Amino acid sequence: MAAAPSYGERMIVAVVNFALPAPLSPDEARAMFEASAPSYQNVDGLRRKHYLLGDDGRSAGGVYLWDSREQAEALYNDEWRARLAARYGSEPQVTYYDSQVTVDPSSIIVG
C-alpha cells in the first residue's frame, strides 16, 4: 500500500452543492451537518471536509480535500447521491478541481 500523500503533494478538491427545500438558519445547518460528520471520519483518502451554507440559507454543500480523484469518486456513488437527496431534498452536484498550488499561513506549496 502506498503512503498517503502529504499536503506538499497535489490534491484533488471536490466542491459539492445542493439546493435546500427551505432556508436553514446557521444553527439549524450546524446541527444537521454535525449529525452527518461522523460518517466522513474514516473515508479512505479524505483529508478534510468543510461544510458550507449559502448566505441566504437556501443552498449548502461541502469542500472536500482528497488524495486522489479515484478515492473521491468512490464516495460520490449512487447510494451517496440518493442519501443526500433524501436528507437535503435535492440532487447534489459535484465539481472536481486539481489543486496546483496550496497556500497556508506559513508557506506556499506547489504540488
The number of helical elements comes to: 3
CATH topology: Alpha-Beta Plaits
Strand order of the largest sheet: 2-3-1-4
| Beta-strand content estimate | 35-45%
User: How do the helices and strands follow one another from N- to C-terminus?
Assistant: EHEEHHEEE
Number of strands: 6
Q: Percentage of helical residues?
A: 25-40%
Supply the CATH class: Alpha Beta
Major sheet, described briefly?
Answer: 4 strands, antiparallel
Description:
It is a single chain. The chain has helices spanning 26-36, 69-75, 78-88, and strands spanning 11-19, 46-53, 59-66, 93-99, 101-104, 107-110. The two termini are 21 Å apart. It is of the alpha+beta class. A hairpin with a 5-residue loop joins strand 2 (46-53) and strand 3. The protein has a 4-stranded antiparallel sheet with strand order 2-3-1-4. Strands 5-6 form a two-stranded antiparallel ribbon. The mean pLDDT is 88. The protein has one domain (11-110): 2-Layer Sandwich (Alpha-Beta Plaits).
Briefly, what is this?
The protein has helices at residues 26-36, 69-75, 78-88, and strands at 11-19, 46-53, 59-66, 93-99, 101-104, 107-110.
Give me some keywords for this one.
3 helices; 111 residues; two-stranded antiparallel ribbon; single chain; Alpha-Beta Plaits; 6 strands; four-stranded antiparallel sheet; alpha+beta; globular
